[in-house]
Amino acid sequence: MSIEIKNINKSFGSFEALSNINLTIKHGELAALLGPSGSGKTTLLRIIAGLESPDSGEIIFHDEMANTSKIKNGEVGFVFQHYALFRHMNIFENVAFGLKVRKRNIRPSKAEIEEKVHSLLKLVQLDNFQYRYPSELSGGQRQRVALARALAIEPKFLLLDEPFGALDAKVRKELRNWVRRLHDEIHITSVFVTHDQEEALEVSDTVVILRSGKIEQIGSPDEVYNKPKSPFVFNFLGDVNLFHGRIHEGKAVIGNVDVESPDHAALENSAAVAYVRPYDVEILRSKDQGIAAEIQYIHSTGRNVRVELKRKDTGTLIESVLEQENYKALNLLPGETVYLRIKKATVYVDDDFSI
Ligand code: ADP
Ligand code: MG
Fold it and tell me: I need a labelling partner for 59 at 20 to 30 A (CA). Which of 2, 138, 227, 292 fits?
């Protein structure tokens, strides 16, 4: 089942929650809708599910033969952030629920339901938990039951709205890897909503970045991360340092260093900003080709070391992340002056900020 989203618009009163959304989610794909809170992710998901109707535009479902098909009640699997399981039912009964409430003529037999529930509990690695009650499970286990319950009805597609939002960081990480593996096994077309960029980048095949009800960029995790189309996307996908400068002969000139910027060669003398991830700021001891900066703080975060620096020329604060080995070799101390080299940057000019 592929999902074609065509020209969707949706307002609440005078507030435009979604404008001109166009997007196709391919058969078997796991797409992440990523954006800050209030950007329209849940609204779009609810429109896909048919729980909300758009003001204009349409959602078209195509089956594997590329025929359009209607989605009937009970063909969508849903998992929400707080998908409360039925407290008075054990895990088996929770997962079986959607099948047991079917009309008699389409309800599977008792034996079939039992087999289905067991295979699903096995899939979510909870096969020994069928007689437990939700209160006897951890948060992560409960979300896995919620997933098994959503899958029990053999939905045409699966919609997940911040399914791990309420869980702590470690469990979130485990579950996100687990969802990826599950998806690789069952290949059900899925749309996954999250405001967590790391989650979106790690789990999905395609990332759709929403900003104030509009699509800002669509691409593979690699594309959106390494070729962010706008300063917004760059910023949203991770920590960033901004280095202000001007374009000169196809380079952005920042203080006493240059950053290649061939795309902007025609914009001689335009104001430019180089966006640089902290691990692309290299700290050097020698002053050749480096921006002088004073070390303010050094935080060791286990595998990496985060160094806060203050540029000598502009007073701007810069963050650099380096590996422990490199840090030890440099033997850095707060108060010292070092030199910064920009290993990799994305340069934006004024026009890029008005997209
Ligand atoms: P997200 O899931 O990205 O956080 P939502 O889709 O829930 O965002 O909401 C997008 C915007 O639309 C928000 O500003 C929200 O307040 C508004 N909104 C959502 N649902 C309604 C509603 N039923 N009535 C009025 N405003 C709504
Ligand atoms: Mg939401």
Answer: 227
